[in-house]
Amino acid sequence: MDLGGHTTQPMQGEFDIRNMNMKPGTTLKIKGRIADNTDGFTINLGQASDKLNLHFNPRFKESTIVCNSLDGSQWGQEKREDHPCFSPGSEVKFTVTFESDKFNVKLPDGHQMTFPNRLGNSHLNYLGVRGGFSVSSFKVE
């Protein structure tokens, strides 16, 4: 898989990418299918699975999107946005733009939300996907 290109086969279930090269001003474009029988999914960006600058978690039963940060074993304060634009069984595309002080997330319906870069890192090298989301393509540019 080429981080400058896109995947050719959908990636099922959980996966991690390390040694990614995401710097301020870059955008992660991600496309995939949400499973029919899932309660939600998670996209994590940061330094490692226990050092997350952005934990992005749409929760279907709660009709909300939860964002947070994780520093070791310490979670930050959740930021919730009641904008349920994801639904089980749908194909979606959305983007995450990394700025030095925040993340701008453009949701599938065009709505934008922001989350602060609480850990202050200027380079992200970890992407993790969890839950009911099968990635069909992603690109960092």
List the helices and strands and how they pair.
Layout: E1 15-22, E2 26-34, E3 41-48, E4 51-59, E5 64-71, E6 74-75, E7 79-81, E8 91-98, E9 102-106, E10 112-116, E11 124-131, E12 133-140
Antiparallel strand pairs: 1-11, 2-8, 2-12, 3-4, 3-11, 4-5, 5-6, 5-7, 8-9, 9-10
Question: How would you characterize the overall build of this protein?
Answer:
This protein is an all-beta fold. Helix content is 0%, strand content 57%. The strands form 2 sheets. Strands 1, 3, 4, 5, 6, 7 and 11 form a 7-stranded antiparallel beta sheet that branches. The chain has a 5-stranded antiparallel beta sheet with strand order 10-9-8-2-12, with no helix packed on it. The radius of gyration is 14 Å and the shape is globular. The two termini are 15 Å apart.
Characteristic terms for this protein:
141 residues, disordered N terminus, 5-stranded antiparallel β-sheet, mainly beta, 7-stranded antiparallel β-sheet
Task: Detail the poorly predicted runs.
Answer: 1-10
Task: Please identify the oligomeric state.
Answer: single chain
Kindly state the number of beta strands.
12
Structural class: mainly beta
Question: What is the CA-based Rg, rounded?
Answer: 14 Å
Order of helices and strands: EEEEEEEEEEEE
Main sheet? 7 strands, antiparallel
User: How confident overall, as mean pLDDT?
Assistant: 90
Question: Could you tell me the strand content as a percent range?
Answer: over 45%
Label the overall shape: globular
| Separate helix tally | 0
N-to-C CA distance = 15 Å
Helix content: under 10%
